[in-house]
Amino acid sequence: MTPAVVGRRRVVFLLALLGFQLSGVVCEELRKLSVSDWWEKSGFYQIYPRSFKDSNGDGIGDLKGITQKLPYLKSIGVKAFWLSPIYKSPMADFGYDISDFRDIQPEYGTLQDFKDLKAEANKLGLKLIMDFVPNHSSDEHEWFQKSENRVAGYEDYYVWHDGKPGDDPNQNDPPNNWVEAFRGSAWRWSNIRKQYYLHQFHYKQPDLNYRNSKVVEEMKNVLRYWLDLGVDGFRIDAVNWLFEDSQLRDEPPSGESDDPLRPEYLSHIYTRDMPETTDMVYQWRAVMDEYKQQHGGDTRVMMTESWSNLDIVATYYEDVNKRQGSNMPFNFQLILHLNKNSKASNFKTVIDSWLNIVPDQHVANWVLGNHDQRRVASRMGGEHMADLMAMVGLSLPGVSVTYQGEEIGMTDYEVSWEDTKDPAGCQTSPTDYQKYSRDPARTPFQWDNSSKAGFTSGSTTWLPVNPNYLTVNVDYQEKASNSHLKVFKKLIELRDEDIFHDCLYGVMAVGDNVFGIVRTTTPLHEAPVYLTLINIANQAVNVTTQTIYSGFSVSFTSDMKVAVASVSSKRSEGNSVSLNNLELQPYEGLVLRAGAAVLMLSKLLSLLLVFTVFLLW
């Protein structure tokens, strides 16, 4: 081999390794992001219609009220909103018991009101997502009434069973020990049909039978009906409940409760997460993709609700053959595993656990709250946590999902037993209903400091208004020099920058109380860098370049600028901050911006090794 060939080989070898090392600098610790579709970098906003805005003074939110407030959604920077159920319903479970999947509940308005809402959303460039409730209907639905009466073709639209012989000669005992989600047996006797029907939720919510191909097609046609009306996607409710064990076997005790009528008494191995469920999700995705192919337009997005273990939730993205499922299997990890007692390390563990299950070419999502859970500020210890949790959710890559009111720091209001409406609470007792009721997070939205928080012009509201509405309201916070709402808006604006959709460099815990996130883009040594730091303690904490370096293995310029500061911070946007010795005040959160980061030390050592090998070769 000639010296020239040897020289060229050495140069090629060196450049190849150098290129490998430099490419590894960017996003190595977690992931390089690929954002190509409208929804993959959007903020989604959940509206609970009954509590958002009342337009006619009856104390119940409605579609016209939502339409009136769409400019507000546009102003805070979200790109899409999804509506909890607005279908025709007897309201046993406030819209999740549907008597007509193709019509609107009169309390909320009409189909024309829905069309007007969609038209206004289109004008503002907002996407509308419908709630799809496939597991059950109302017992007042035409299908159930026909099935109960054994009308030909509808006999097994629902899950029916004779039950087991018992002491009563006129009525058998339930088929097994299954319990519903609210409390009590999951089986209800029909005096008309002389059989039991399955209801995994309220007894007025009989479970549809997805082992019947006619039911499967009926529900696909429901999707197509609303797609024809222009909806931009669906949030699919309680997806992991769709199928149950065909042998109806008893479920074993879990050891988590002494009350055999509570859902937590059993391990739900035969009523949730059946293997057929994911296939149904893939079939629905095919309906959505087929609709786009036939009619054009943007992607119709599908979001799925499942509180299952991560290994199960991961299967909703795609199967082993890369068949596509849910665009967004909802990520509830921040709800399930973080609370007011959490440490910074818990934040890191929870976030890493989700990112580890997201397949390549898919994006993450971050859900901080919804209508079924305590509000994020209350869950995490108080209104002061609203900004910090928003900083976490909006600094991470992918989709953010905000429940109405979280952007202004709304907190739970403990509704009295007399005012309780939620069946999850009403089916218990005055002594323990607060452990189960979802009403505290469903109180009316707080628009201003007028009577009833500006939610209604009437004298009453379906649930009481939280008394803190005098300052925790949109109008007050829009006028304030700094507020939760203004922090939220700044975070959304920042999140719209391309840098926030390119690379998540890493997340870290600094001691027990400081959590950090680094975002940047390529190439690392030239790109601006954002560092989010939150102090979750009620005491000041010092952060230094040394601690940040140990957390990220990357060095920053010592001086950074404040991009966003929490309400609890004394700093303002544009202030210079030195990382040589930064003292974070109690519950202070900052998003800092630096000109660029430098290469990780580990990479520099690797490069040095490459040069050494080259010289010795």
What report would you give on this structure?
- The two termini are 14 Å apart.
- With 617 residues, this protein is an alpha/beta fold.
- Mean pLDDT is 89; it is low at 4-30 and 598-614.
- The strands form five sheets. Strands 12-11-10-6-3-2-14-13 form an eight-stranded parallel sheet.
- The longest helix has 23 residues, at 3-25.
- 28% of the residues lie in helices and 16% in strands.
- The chain contains 17 helices and 22 strands.
- Among the domains are: 3-32 and 501-603, Immunoglobulin-like; 38-131 and 331-486, TIM Barrel, CATH 3.20.20.
- Strand 11, helix 8 (310-313) and strand 12 form a beta-alpha-beta unit.
- It has helices spanning 3-25, 63-68, 70-76, 111-124, 142-148, 213-228, 276-295, 310-313, 333-336, 344-355, 376-379, 385-395, 423-426, 474-479, 484-495, 545-552, 601-616; strands spanning 31-32, 43-47, 80-83, 87-88, 100-104, 127-132, 160-161, 187-190, 195-198, 233-236, 301-304, 328-329, 365-367, 399-403, 503-510, 514-520, 529-535, 541-543, 559-565, 576-578, 582-584, 589-594.
Characteristics:
8-stranded parallel β-sheet, TIM Barrel, about 625 residues, single chain, Immunoglobulin-like, alpha/beta
Q: Which parts are unreliable, with pLDDT below 50 for 5 consecutive residues or more? A: 4-30, 598-614
CATH top level of the domain at 38-131 and 331-486 is Alpha Beta
Strand content: 15-25%
CATH-defined fold name of the domain at 38-131 and 331-486: TIM Barrel
The number of E-state strands comes to: 22
Gross geometry = globular
* Largest sheet strand order: 12-11-10-6-3-2-14-13
| Mean pLDDT value | 89
Q: C-alpha Rg, in Å?
A: 27 Å
Task: Please give the count of helices.
Answer: 17
What is the share of helical residues? 25-40%
Second rung of CATH, namely the architecture of the domain at 38-131 and 331-486:
Alpha-Beta Barrel
Assign the structural class, choosing from mainly alpha, mainly beta, alpha/beta, alpha+beta, or little secondary structure: alpha/beta
Within CATH, the superfamily of the domain at 38-131 and 331-486 carries the name Glycosidases
The main sheet comes to: 8 strands, parallel
The CA-CA distance between the termini, in Å, is 14 Å
